[in-house]
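User: Could you check the structure of this?
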Amino acid sequence: MKGISLILLLIILAGTGISGAQEPAMQQPSNWPSLMTHIKINESLDFCGEPVALHLQEVGERLEKELLLMIWDRPQVALWIKRSTRYLPIIERMLRENNMPADLKYVAIIESALRPHAGSRKGAIGFWQFLRSTGRNYGLRINTEIDERRNIFASTQAAINYFKALYEMLGSWTLSAAAYNMGELGLQSEMASQKSQDYYQLYLPLETQRYVFRIIAAKMILTDPARFGFQFTDQDLYPPLAFDRIQFECFQDTPLQIVAQAANSYFKAIKDLNPEIRGHFLAAGTHSLLIPPGNAEGFDARFKQLVQQWQATNQERVYVVQTGDNLTSIAERFKVPLPALLIWNRLDGRKPIHPGDRLVIYPNENMTTQEDPNVRDQ
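Assistant: Sure, the predicted structure tokens are below.
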């Protein structure tokens, strides 16, 4: 019990800056203003040009709550600020080009903390947390090969289109943000039932009641980080996203590793720049991808040469699944790793295979050379 109390005391001391160790410059906890200074709101506030109803006592209390919770979670806010220089310039530019309010960028921060792979229990994915159905409704490709909810450009354009539709429907950016969270039909039903079109006077699901206040609190903190005790130098912030964009044709399913080699880069770098790509292969068709900057020149020639080499040295073989087979036994028979077999065939190891299924197996130096009547060269 004493050990637990000591740990708690150390955490409290660290959080208040009373410590012998020097804290990182970006936190500077010893210089924090008091909590009351943090949450004291003397200025008028707005969201997308629409005033926040601070004349209502309850509104001030709800905003104070969100500010306090965010300030408490300093590592998360620090990551928001550091990522903002990587992704917000893209979002800001796209909002300007579409004549949309700049404040909508804070929606992405609240939705995903600017993480491409963020996901929710309800199945929302990506920077703007689109559900599969809503994403498709607003033009996103979502299938087994590509999930554009993870693409900063495609998902931002889809969010812009969605907000345009919501604003046309509701006539208010504040209500549009609430509808973005809970759905337009649900919000319209509540507005009709409660005979109110004022977000600040509507009783909504608790998450939606907090939603706009979280956006406003994020706007306050990111607009003036120093006011809330966050001190950053330019070197502390993440660099803007840098890339070359290339377009090329795949005439068959092609390993993404070949793209990485042609780009003089690594598989991970290509996946990080193109988080919408699912798995290890690109499907046949035309692709527009991002690669590390400076590597676009000569890409086409390198890519074609590497594809030809891959086709020549990795002649695929197709195995026809027989009664009694399972993935483990097939992998053992051909002396290939089971994970590789799953990747080659885009299989879920939790799902069964069936007699007659055709599995691609790439030869390797340890594969048995004994003829198998169920293996067919292609």
